[in-house]
Amino acid sequence: MNLARPPLVSWEAGDTVLVISELRKAYGSIVAVNGVSFSLERGQLLGLLGPNGAGKSTTVSMIAGLVTPDHGTVTIDGVRLSGDTDPVKRRIGLVPQDLALYDELPAKANLQLFGSLYGLSSKALEGSIARVLALVGLADRAHDKVKTFSGGMKRRLNLAAGLLHDPDILLLDEPTVGVDPQSRNAIFENLEQLKASGKALLYTTHYMEEAERLADRIVVMDHGRVLADDTLGGLRARRAGAADGASLESLFLELTGRSLRD
Amino acid sequence: MGAYVALVRKDLQIFFGDRRAVILTLAVPIAIASFFGSIFAGVPGSDEPAKIAVVVVDEDGSTISRAIVDGMQKDAALAVTAEPLTQARAAVQAGTIAVAVVIPSGFGEAAGRAFLARTTRPEVAVLFDPSRAAEVSMVRGMLTGHVMEAVGAEVFAGPQGRALVDESLKNLESASALSGSEREILRTLLQSVQQLNQTGGAAGTQGLMTVPYTVKEDAVTSGANVAYNSYAHAFAGMGVQFLLFAGIDLGMGILLERERGLWKRFRSAPVSRFTMLGARATSGTVLTLLALLVSFGFAMAVFGVRIEGSIAGFALVALACAIMAATFGLLVSALGRTAAATRRVATFAVLVMVMLGGAWVPSFIFPAWLQRVTVVIPARWAVDGLDAMTWRGLGLQAALMPTFVMLLFSAVFGALTLWKFRWEEA
Predict the structure, then answer these.
(1) Burial of A76 (0-12, 13-18, 19+ CB in 10 A)
(2) Which residues of A touch B262 (CB under 8 A)?
(3) ipTM of this complex
(4) Which domains does chain B show, CATH number per domain?
(5) How far is B410 from chain A (nearest CA, A)?
(6) Which residues of B touch A164 (CB under 8 A)?
(7) 8 Å CB contact between B161 and B112
(8) Which of A 100-159 lie inside 8 A of B, CB atoms?
(9) pLDDT, tens digit, for every residue of B302-335?
(10) Which residues of chain A neighbour B260 with C-beta distances below 8 Å?
(11) In this predicted model, what pLDDT tens digit does every residue of B202-235 receive, in sequence order?
């Protein structure tokens, strides 16, 4: 098994890095995910949309190795993900929806901890910490405790923690919840940079305008199934009589319905 | 290994980064153990057993009743004061004393008569605090001895006894229930007593009908002239209690990490389950061991507690206690759903464990069946092990069984954790 990460300079658009196939997960009688399949290419941001309870988080959890699928596979560059300690997990970075940080520790100590989980040497870790803190604009706050950070700064640090080990695939679960427009814009710029460097990004959100701005492709899920998998233009083209300017939100509501889910 | 060390270091950083938590973790067990130790301390530097406070109400004032009071006052196990009945009853009701003994008017004469003949026996009233029943039993036993001694002395050597014997001899002739031979034997016996009494209480007759033994008390501690230090047991009991509380905190920490999404990060990394839980067990063991050692260090410096037994044995027991507490914390995290709800249940479980384990009160006051049951309580082995190595002064051998049992509990807690831990992070 060759897990050596390809140099980022060598990536080409169209290189498929992540393939998920026929994923299924049930909790008792409730089927959370039912036969979900899609793929993700380098340098691409895939927007994963769906109402609450659609199965987005469970799908992301299966890709990240947090949940074991009942059926189906997750493969990264042709290598199937299996087991807690599978080295292929190093190719994935997770940015959870929660601010998964220790408030009691300084930003740098948080990053040292999370980087250590990926077996980075001290020297490599120091370099990575400097790189990701610079990327998210927190280099000058490295030694401050996270509890002194604003919500937006915590969100950016949350993103930085997922990037420490330089993953090829970044899973972002609603990474802009509760942040001000400035921080959201900064995060968007970070994501654009990452995309440009060849990272493959899987982005779940409830904000349609975010998906419209960032996503190269959109997968819409509901009731554990994929309802649509296309570019924004492709989605518009499917809808008979839709104007070029039809909003993603109207397309989304047409696909998933208007009934309340909570 | 890097992940393991980083996870342990993180826990230590968080603990030591919170000065208030550090002080509370170390100071609270010390304060409570000091309080418990002082309750059971008795007279500092003395081996003399604690005395039971008793009030005596002598409404008789006879030779016999005065002798009973005198005997009780000389009893090393009793602290006797004389009070009128009203005050005695009020003192018992208020809980300031456990027992009051009331000797009613006419007791001396009636008791002497009942000693020699089949007649109505007089009553001694014992007023007692129902919450201190153990002390009542002890006083009842001691009172019996003093009454027998006082009545016997008077009958064989006192003026009241002489009159009673004369009266009994007179009554003997009219006792129709006796056969001729029985009457003759009794007459001889009473005449012998009369003869003895007429010698005027000559040397040798005083002290007839006394309790036929005396008690020499010897507190068995780690060695001759080594006084029992109640702080040693108090610090063991409270130390174990707070180790288990620290275990709960460890479990709460894991549940809170889960609620904050941190376990998603951990689980998404290529780190094994053993590493994640093992690191928590290690940091938990280090911190609880530290708390126990600081606590005992304080007890040694301030209250003169000593490891009278094996130092290696103490180290083994302390380490096993810490491992047991840490794995108990892991189990709490495995069985709990939310931190808030789990804390209440876990705290209740710990309080029951330490209560049955003898950390608060000695386990000998429990019913026999309960004492047998407590062998399945890990806290009991912990307290017994620490007691054995401190004030009991036992050797390394005595540390092995408690250590083994606590490690066995740790293994069971660890296995249950691996089985029940919620690994999936949806």
Answers:
(1) buried
(2) 98, 100-102
(3) 0.88
(4) 2-42+232-420 (no CATH), 52-205 (3.40.1710)
(5) 24
(6) none
(7) yes
(8) 100-102, 104-105, 109, 112-114, 116-120
(9) 999 999 999 999 999 999 999 999 999 999 999 9
(10) 98-101
(11) 445 555 556 666 666 666 666 666 677 889 989 9
